[in-house]
Write a structure and sequence with these properties.
The protein is mainly beta and 318 residues long. It has 2 domains: 123 residues, Chitinase A, domain 3, CATH 3.10.50; 139 residues, Chitinase A, domain 3, CATH 3.10.50. 7% of the residues lie in helices and 31% in strands. The strands form 4 sheets. Strands 9, 12, 13, 14, 15, 16 and 17 form a 7-stranded antiparallel β-sheet that branches. Strands 3, 4, 5, 6, 7 and 8 form a 6-stranded antiparallel β-sheet that branches. Strands 1-2 form a two-stranded antiparallel ribbon. The longest helix has 7 residues. Pfam families: FKBP_C. It catalyses: [protein]-peptidylproline (omega=180) = [protein]-peptidylproline (omega=0).
Amino acid sequence: MIRRRTLLTTALAATAAIGLAACSEDGSDPEATGAASDAGGGEPALSGVTVGEDLGAEPTVEFSAPLAISGPDAQVIVPGDGAKIAEGDNLIWRSLYADAATGETLQSWWQGAPASGLRVDAEGVGQSALEALTTATVGSRVAMAGWQTSQSGDNYSLVQVADIDRVVDPLRAEGESGDPSGDFPAVTLDDKGAPALQDTPQGDPPTETVREELIVGTGERTREGDYLVMHYTGWSWADGKQFDSSWERDAPFSFVQGAGRVIPGWDQGLLDLPVGSQVMLVLPPAAAYGEKGENDEELNGQTLIFVIDVLDAAHRAD
């Protein structure tokens, strides 16, 4: 339900792996040639790529351009010394993207781009990446060759090099109990931590954004430019009905904080929070999907309630 908006003015969306399954944002094949298959013939794309192995520095990526990518390819460049990556893990990593056509670096965490991450599953990254990532460990440097679609709809053949920083864990808020005002419905949690409203909202909704801290985490505070990972559930103030939940999809949601990809209330209301916190945001239409008739969103004109667990916040390079 939460629609992502344009992320960056640079070439690529920084919140995912490149399209190793040859998928653009709408799930279509940007090459439109069936190139997601490994049966493209010839040598694997990364056989012609040399990647620097110094984990303390931005990776060097060398190849003769243009680099032909007839099928997705992925490999571990430097093994890490952390825990083994498992299917279904949610990773945080630091990435560099090189244009296979020119050799140019399009985007790099080491040069100020946001951090990024992904969920390790075939649907999101493709079978080649899944097989490589599930042989990797935390701390590894991995390389992938594939495709991505830019915000303007241009298709790129790419080499992505990423240093795996960590696995997001736990996948629920943990900390001390907050001190909510009591003016809004109480929240109950199931065994996994998924929230539910105890009562239907009563009275007129607030006209300004309200943030109530239900659990106060102990991690670093969120800031603009962070790659934020969270679980959330949303309800309509008007009738108390749930309209969306990442918990039901069993997959956290992620975005770059302050980049205008999500509703304004999330960009603004999730700043300066310790990781591990759980907050309730009560958002009037202007901070959610706009006033009635302003656009075509189903939730136009509605005040919304969200309960959000802040699971991780990866910073830009210092």
